[in-house]
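Protein entry
_____________
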Amino acid sequence: MRYALLILFVIALSACNRSDIFFRFADDLAVSKTDDYFNLTSEQRDDLRKDVQKDIQNIKKELLPQVAKTLREIEPEVQKDKPNAELISRHFDEFQNYFKKVSAYFKNTAVKVSLKLKSDQYTHFAKELRDEIKETESSNELPEDSLNQTFKRYRRSIEFWIGGLSNDQKEKIKKFISTHPYPWRLQNQSKEFVLKQFLDSKENPEKLKKFVADFYDDFEAVRLPAYTTALNEHKKAFQKFLIEEFWQSLSKEQKTNLKENLLARAEELEKISQRP
């Protein structure tokens, strides 16, 4: 459920003209993904939907205005030849914290769900997650496959904000990924590491409650430490790449697109926060 809603949050930031639709169907997405993982009963699905709807309303009212404010603060930096690295770094950190805040809004709901799960539902979840891990390993079997997977993800994310990329910009991104590969192997090991903690805690309600609460409060705290370290290094390197190298390649049109998109997304999130 947490991953489904974090994905939704990213999409909402990346597609302002569809954000309202995504938030209107966020409960459906959360319930559907959670059901896929745990094979919920009809009663569990109904209870989950009601609780998630309340959590989403709180996010809309409390968190979206904060995100919009950050987007508006970034906008003045766009037309500069080189943005304030310290300021941009602070905004990067803010967005990482927003992901954690989004997760924390669903903590009580997740604890409630986990305490009502049956043994066969834990087994179903373990199988689903391990199947995902195997699929990731298969799709990244060769080094060039891993590079292409990461490139597509980064390209899609950047183009959301600035429009189409030039061939030179694409090559810059590929070179960065080749030099600083995404730690997907450690990511899979971390998923197994977190899964083991989850399964180990299922027989003790208090231990389970604490684990799930910790996971939703700060998912980095329960990850495999080596993955957290590698991922943070990758993020820092990517941030430096964007500011010190990629930024210089932006055309006037791309900067205009970025400026307009930042303001449009901020305005859309502010409108959504005010709707019932």
